[in-house]
Specification:
alpha/beta; Glycerol-3-phosphate (1)-acyltransferase; 7 strands; 35% helix
Amino acid sequence: MSQSSSRAPEPAGPLKRNFIRYTVRLLANLYLRVRREEWHNIPAATPYLLCFNHPNWVDPFLLVAFWPKKHRFMIFGPKEEDMKVGWRNRLIGWGRLAVPFKPSKSDLIDTTKRAMAVVNAGHVLGIAGEGRLSDREGQVAPLQDGAAFFALRAKMAIVPVGITGTRWLRFRKTVTLRVGKTIELRGRRPTRAGVLSLTEELTAEMNSLIAGATDGPPPGPFARWLTDAFNERPWLLEEARPEATPVDRPPANG
């Protein structure tokens, strides 16, 4: 996929898409217990935006595997400078399920055009609203304004999804994908005030979807390795330093 193209990324064909979907679903069901709740809140037709919290690297894969098959699903991300480096990035590129963007934001305009083109082409665009991994179960990190911005620009409603249970990937642990009620734009425009208003409403809805979720202490060695295989939380490493102070921690939207 060309990073300079402003066209919608071409989704994977049926054979590849079904292979990815059912392979991930099989592996997830073998290791976890995946529970789907309030599935009736999913819109009957596409396109729309989907905003989810992000406790673990596995979250977008679970959504791709369990979301209704008839809704073509693409993820906004990952944040990588070069998608040709590393087997994980090459695998994501092969799957054609992502709209990657560069950390340097040097391709911000083209990335925005590609993201908008996904919904304009009639697909579902999934966005991890926090812009990074969550720290704890049952707690949404402050949302960035990307989801609200895209929704208002594309004039598309947002479907909030709360994910709980993935902070630690223990064997046979219950993971819940809970769908909230669709958030309509209600006349809001893509101005700073409109983005702020929609982000606040989205934050409240997402917090309600994961309220009360808790997790125990870290699991054994294998589950810890699986949990953190692709997770990056440098701010938690900083907090673990004895001399660390609150100012050492980057802002939530950084």
